[in-house]
């Protein structure tokens, strides 16, 4: 069996998969804050999976970890994982000697791209667009993650698509993330809420002008990301994941409508049938954890595998 962990800012989702890639066990635990606590979280998650399936250590042949932040290409060193209180941490060096198996580390969205590819049953080239607190994407072709020369393939969130749009945290205006990122929407909404994007959609349905503007911006930003993925790397499909996609068809229909509206004046854009190429992952799918487990696949080991 292979283990995959999605180490998030508050919770860690962990799965064990068999040789066929089927999830046989899944647990969720709280994520600790800071490097030592993150390492402890990894150990706790693996122990919890082991307890669920009563497996001896040799039955876990690898552990993959998806984590927010930058993973230095060709290493298992994570940097700038600010949501976890981690400035720099070599995860394989920290956990592999104790676990006794190879450890693979990847950015969480890139890991989710692999998982999304498997869950969607995709073939060919797929773009995974993560709509969450921020915006990022991953590209998978024939089951292999495309990282790019510097590991930045798919970082679409900071492409500016509206120079007069809202200010982004990166300093530009009108970035896709500033339009469609959950954090940006919550800040622009400015009302205390546990689920601000849902509140925006509900208020827009009730006719609130600010909510309507924010909802339209979300659709426009996400649609722009879809166009970027199709027009730059010619993906066959774009699969949407991340917390914002819990809105389901309400979100998908808005994005499809924006794509269709923007194609009305362009026969070329209409020929791409963009709205028909976009779909949602099922709610609650363990995409990042599954993708992290799949990092042990021989097709995905280049530049990822490291031993403690």
| Number of DSSP-assigned strands | 14
Helix count, DSSP H or I runs of 4 or more residues: 10
Order of helices and strands: EEEHEEEEHEHEEEHHHHEHHEHE
Unreliable stretches, pLDDT < 50, 5 or more residues? 301-308
The name CATH uses for the topology of the largest domain is Nucleotidyltransferase, domain 5
Taken from the alpha-carbon principal axes, the silhouette is globular
Output mean pLDDT: 92
**Separation of termini?**
19 Å
Q: What is the topology, as strand order, of the major beta sheet?
A: 3-2-1-4-8-14
- Strand % is 15-25%
CATH superfamily of the largest domain: ATPase, nucleotide binding domain
Q: Helices and strands: which structural class?
A: alpha/beta
**Name given to the CATH architecture of the largest domain:** 2-Layer Sandwich
Chain oligomer state: single chain
- CATH top-level class of the largest domain: Alpha Beta
**Considering DSSP H and I runs of 4 or more, what fraction of the residues is helical?**
25-40%
What is the alpha-carbon Rg in Å?
19 Å
Count of structural domains: 2
Largest sheet descriptor: 6 strands, mixed
Organism: Microbacterium marmarense
Family: Belongs to the ROK (NagC/XylR) family.
Protein name: ROK family protein
Pfam families: ROK (PF00480)
Structure described in brief:
Belongs to the ROK (NagC/XylR) family. 38% of the residues lie in helices and 23% in strands. With 308 residues, the chain is of the alpha/beta class.
């Amino acid at each position: 069996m292979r283990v995959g962990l999605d180490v998030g800012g508050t919770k860690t989702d962990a799965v064990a998969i068999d040789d066929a890639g089927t999830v046989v066990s899944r647990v969720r635990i709280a994520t600790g804050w800071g490097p030592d606590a993150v390492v402890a979280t990894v150990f706790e998650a693996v122990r919890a999976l082991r307890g669920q399936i009563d497996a001896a250590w040799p039955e876990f042949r690898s552990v993959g970890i998806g984590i927010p932040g930058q993973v230095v290409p060709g290493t298992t060193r994570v940097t700038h994982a600010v949501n976890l209180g981690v400035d720099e941490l070599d995860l394989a060096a920290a956990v592999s000697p104790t676990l006794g198996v190879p450890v693979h580390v990847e950015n969480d969205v890139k890991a989710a791209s692999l998982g999304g590819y498997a869950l969607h049953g995709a073939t060919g080239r797929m773009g995974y667009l993560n709509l969450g607190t921020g915006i990022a994407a991953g590209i998978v072709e024939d089951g292999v993650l495309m990282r790019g020369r510097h590991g930045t393939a798919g970082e679409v969130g900071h492409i500016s698509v509206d120079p007069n749009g809202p200010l982004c945290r990166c300093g530009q205006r009108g970035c896709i993330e500033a339009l469609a990122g959950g954090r940006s929407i919550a800040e622009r909404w400015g009302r205390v809420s546990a689920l601000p994007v849902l509140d925006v959609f509900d208020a827009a349905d009730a006719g609130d002008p600010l909510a309507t503007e924010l909802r339209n911006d979300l659709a426009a930003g996400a649609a722009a990301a879809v166009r970027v993925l199709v027009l730059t790397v010619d993906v066959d499909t774009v699969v949407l994941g991340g917390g914002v996609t819990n809105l389901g068809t309400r979100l998908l229909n808005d994005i499809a409508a924006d794509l269709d509206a923007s194609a009305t004046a362009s026969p070329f854009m209409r020929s791409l049938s963009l709205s028909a190429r976009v779909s949602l992952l099922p709610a609650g799918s363990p995409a990042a954890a599954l993708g992290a487990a799949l990092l042990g696949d021989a097709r995905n080991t280049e530049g990822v595998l490291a031993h403690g």
